[in-house]
Amino acid sequence: MKYENQTLFLDGKLTKFTVPDLLHELSQYKGKKISTIDLSEVSSIDSAGVAFLDELVLNLHKFKPQLANMNEIVESAVSTFTSLSLKKPVPGRKDNFFILIGEGLLRWRDSTRDAIYLIADIFYWSFVGLFNRKGQRQGSIIQQSLIIGVDAVGIIALLSFILGLILALQSAAQLRQFGANIFVADLMAISMVTEMGPILTAIILAGRSGSSIASEIATMKVTEEIDALRMMAINPIRYIVVPKFLAITICIPLLVTMSTLVGILGGLIVAVTYLDLSAVVFFNRVFEILTMRDALIGLGKSFFFAWVIVIIGSYYGFNVKGGAEGVGKVTTQAVVASIFWVIILDALNSLIFYFKT
Amino acid sequence: MIEPIISVKDLVAKYGEQTVLDNVSLDIYPEEITVILGGSGCGKTTLIKNILRLFEPVSGSVKILNKEVTRMDELEFNSILSKIGMLFQNGALLNSLTIFDNVSIPLVQHTKLTPTIIAKMIRVKLKLVNLAKVENLLPSELSGGMKKRAALARAIALDPDILICDEPSAGLDPLTSASLDELILKLKNLLKMTIVIVTHELASIHRIADRIIFLDEGKVLFSGTLQQAKKSVIPEVETFFRVGKFG
């Protein structure tokens, strides 16, 4: 590169490998008047070279520089790869604060409406599905029960047992100081039946089944399988969601009951080994303290947790946008939202049934 | 005699027990457009993926730019790959990135160009494939043909020495397909690119091919210039050039 009589002479290769150095070299001619860029000595040029020339012409626009002495190849490359003829990209509209709030509210209204439609559809088709299996795959409820329920037995049992053990151990140390050893049975019975059993089961199901429901439906949506079902005159909610909904409705009371029993068993081990209570005394106390109301509230709310998991998983699955990344995103959102709503429902349940003024 | 830019010798590829490529030998010459032809499942894509080491060949040798690549270490092979652009059958754009970001990947990763120069190059490449207005969209927001063109823009982002296209015109309308052929010819002439294309489009073959390689059941049935292929007496080749179908 050299500069003479308002002319910049470029030579050699103008390619992606030489352009960074040329840009560096060019800085020494900053401020000089360049009215011609001579390309007679340029041996080869690629699209990076042409972009470099465009940049040069744009930066020197006040001198209106001309490209001169181009051979046929260079001229052809410049005419093919020049970006000077392209329209300038229009910068995206920047919304003000009120527009953002308005759009947010509209989005919220739309998503609430969609969710209500989905919930109505799921409940309607699940009720219909109890009596009429048309539009569902044969054996799909049993298959889903195995996936959602049976496959989760191991992990729910193990975690409930450990949780029961922890609860009992931590309270035992305190109760022992007051000679109130027997109350460990009260604590285990009430906490496991009314709270720990249902919520632990629901959180594990949200992680296991909520994520799988969301990702399965989202993948089906992305790969146009949902559209294919519609084109075969099959209702996707009835075909995909209803078996999961019915399966989780069947499984959740069984899983919660198991979780509660195994949790209490964990407490029993602490009671027998650390608090010198006998198993008979422990169980007598458990049955004495528990009421049917507690058991029904615990089981009752678990149905709502299960439904929330399926509904949220389906909602996010059906509303996936984009491809593989969208699937990952809605799966995460579904799990987070499921756990959030399970806890909110639990709080509401406590307010309704246990908050006495 | 011109040295081949890609040279394959006795390549054998298998899926489990099934032999897909059986002692395939072929040469691709520089600054030419070589079309690889053959019926579905004859091993065209497998051949390309074996040449580019996306699949590990069972035996045989593959030389690219005069270097044996089958036993080359990763770092050295990466430097060869930066000279090759590949257009996959389904585009293979990264779904989480916009079209602009997809095309920017090779430029940002393999050059020291400034962001303004890179942006200019991307916009020009997108204009070349008639996609000037979609740079901020995600791949999922494009049609199949648009995705393929965006993928071509990514493949030629670095002005590679070798461009490999796996069925570039499948799913495109005839007009776009013809303009794509024009672009391919332009790239060959301007940048002295070597181009390997897997295609079945007879019209496209007549427009752009310099050399034809005809695969059948994992073997090279014919290899020669387009003129030789048109006059070939090999029944499968003759049928294809007469009716545009595989016999």
Explain the layout of strands and helices:
The complex is a heterodimer of chains A (357) and B (247).
Chain A: E1 2-4, E2 7-14, H1 19-26, E3 36-45, H2 47-59, E4 66-68, H3 72-81, H4 97-131, H5 140-148, H6 153-177, H7 183-222, H8 225-231, H9 236-273, H10 279-289, H11 292-318, H12 324-354
Parallel strand pairs in A: 2-3, 3-4
Antiparallel strand pairs in A: 1-2
Helix pairs in contact in A: 4-9, 4-11, 5-9, 6-7, 6-9, 7-9, 7-10, 7-11, 7-12, 9-11, 11-12
Chain B: E1 6-15, E2 18-28, E3 33-37, H1 44-51, E4 59-64, E5 67-68, H2 74-81, E6 84-87, H3 99-110, H4 115-128, H5 144-155, E7 162-166, H6 174-191, E8 194-198, H7 202-208, E9 211-216, E10 219-225, H8 226-230, H9 235-243
Parallel strand pairs in B: 3-8, 3-9, 6-7, 7-8
Antiparallel strand pairs in B: 1-2, 1-4, 4-5, 9-10
Quick overview of this protein structure:
The complex is a heterodimer of chains A (357) and B (247). By secondary structure, chain A is of the alpha/beta class. In chain A, 71% of the residues lie in helices and 7% in strands.
